[in-house]
Structure formats: structure tokens, C-alpha cells
Design a protein that fits this description.
Blueprint lengths: L1 E6 L5 H11 L3 E4 H11 L2 H12 L5 H12 L8 E4 L5 H13 L6 E6 L2 H9 L1 E4 L5 E3 L18 E2 L6 H15 L2 H7 L3 E5 L4 H13 L1
Parallel strand pairs: 1-3, 1-4, 2-3, 4-8
Antiparallel strand pairs: 5-6, 5-7
This protein binds adenosine monophosphate (AMP).
The site of adenosine monophosphate (AMP) has 16 residues, from helix 2 and helix 3.
């Protein structure tokens, strides 16, 4: 099973992706996580990508498409994968279709997580992330048991550079312009399943699961 998780930044894609891979045996492909790892490692790609990420802009298609093609060609993605944060532009969606066709496979579902704008701004500006394993917390709604320490791996919990209000609003604008049109693209292909993401994590996941098991 190959799935795309679509939704604005802060809609809950990463959190739902974690739950999906716990339930279904799929590889988790998050372009944001791949890019953040490159930034952390200080690679040339990471240094270039950081400029775009800090401004709330998208990293150029050619770069991201190359990363995803490499990632889905890895052996662990053969069992199926979940794309979290990709595609984000029409160009990426077309490139994905072409790459999957070349590999003799295709998408099974596109899960679109829908959340109100102001809810997203509040969520993102109170979101903290584990520096080591990427686990996501919310200091208001879902804090770790010990402040600043990841429950899963004891790594340090920090606020992402792009989770400040100015960058969050820029990211939402980028989403409206570049990514929102993909909803129509996947609806026209009969793949789109829209889920109300403004509910508790487990309630949202129950719907995601039902859609994927259907
Ligand atoms: P995310 O963790 O998915 O919110 O991604 C964080 C940042 O990484 C985004 O704001 C973009 O700057 C960059 N990024 C992640 N995925 C993509 C993508 N598919 N295309 C372009 N830029 C991306």
C-alpha cells in the first residue's frame, strides 16, 4: 500500500504517520525529516535547504523530487510507503506519478487532513519536536512526561526554527498557493479521502484507519 498524506503544516500529518506505521507495515517517508537531517549534518544540500525552510518557502522541486526517488527505491519501501509532506506542488505530484509508473506501482490513497487555520497557528507555535527521533509534542495539549525530554528516546525536545508565528504564516501561504491545488488533482483521480483533523489524535486516526482498511 502506497499512501500520500496531504494537509497544511500542523494538520497532524507527522503524528498520524507515526500511528499509521505502527498499524500498517509501511516505510515512513517525510521530506521535512530528510531535509532537517541534512541541515543537522551540515551537508551542502542541508545548507541550501535551510534558507528556504527558515523563510517558510518550499525547497526547489528538483532537489526534493531527487530525494524522494532515492528514498522510495530503498529496500524497506518495497513493502509500501507513506509520503508525509510530499508532494507539495503540481510538479512534484506529476514527478511522483511518473516515478511510480516507472517502478510498476501506483498510489492507493491520498489522505487529506483538514484543519482550521487559526487552530493550526496555535498548534504549530506550541509544537516541540525531539531532536533525535523526531517525535512530536504539543506543550499545551500533549507535553512530554519530563519537561524537555523525549518520552520515546530521552532525546532533547526543541522548537523547530520554522515553528515561530511569522514563519508559520508564511508556510500557510505557501501551502495555499502551491499545495492546496493538489486536493483537486487527487480528487479527479478518485484517490482523495478528506478527514476532519480538528479532533483528538486517536479519533482522527480511527477515521484514517477505516479509510485505509476499506
Ligand atoms: P515539514 O516538516 O513537512 O513541515 O517541512 C518543513 C520544511 O521543509 C517546509 O516548510 C519546506 O521548506 C521543506 N519541505 C518539506 N517537504 C517539502 C517538499 N515536498 N517540497 C518542498 N519543500 C519541502
Amino acid at each position: 500500500m502506497n499512501i500520500v498524506l496531504l494537509g497544511a503544516p500542523g494538520a497532524g500529518k507527522g503524528t498520524q504517520a507515526e500511528k499509521i506505521i505502527e498499524t500498517f507495515d509501511l516505510a515512513h517517508v517525510s521530506t521535512g525529516d530528510i531535509l532537517r537531517a541534512a541541515v543537522k549534518a551540515g551537508t551542502p544540500l542541508g545548507i541550501e535547504a535551510k534558507r528556504y525552510m527558515d523563510a517558510g518557502d518550499l525547497v526547489p522541486d528538483a532537489v526534493v523530487i531527487g530525494l524522494v526517488k532515492d528514498r522510495i527505491a530503498q529496500p524497506d519501501a518495497e513493502k509500501g510507503f507513506i509520503l508525509d509532506g510530499f508532494p507539495r506542488t503540481a510538479g512534484q505530484a506529476l514527478a511522483l506519478d511518473a516515478a511510480l509508473a516507472e517502478m510498476g506501482t501506483s498510489l492507493d490513497a491520498v489522505v487529506n487532513i483538514d484543519v482550521d487555520r487559526e487552530v493550526i497557528v496555535t498548534r504549530l507555535t506550541s509544537r516541540y519536536t525531539c531532536r533525535e527521533c523526531g517525535k512530536i509534542y504539543n506543550v499545551l495539549a500533549n507535553p512530554p512526561a519530563t519537561e524537555g525530554v523525549c518520552d520515546a528516546c530521552t532525546g532533547e525536545i526543541y522548537q523547530r526554527d520554522d515553528d515561530n508565528e511569522t514563519t508559520v504564516r508564511a508556510r500557510l501561504e505557501t501551502f495555499d498557493t502551491s499545495t492546496a491545488p493538489l486536493v483537486d488533482y487527487y480528487a479527479a483521480k478518485g484517490l482523495l479521502q478528506t478527514i476532519d483533523g480538528d479532533r483528538p489524535v486517536d479519533v482522527v486516526f480511527a477515521d484514517v484507519r477505516a479509510v485505509l482498511e476499506a
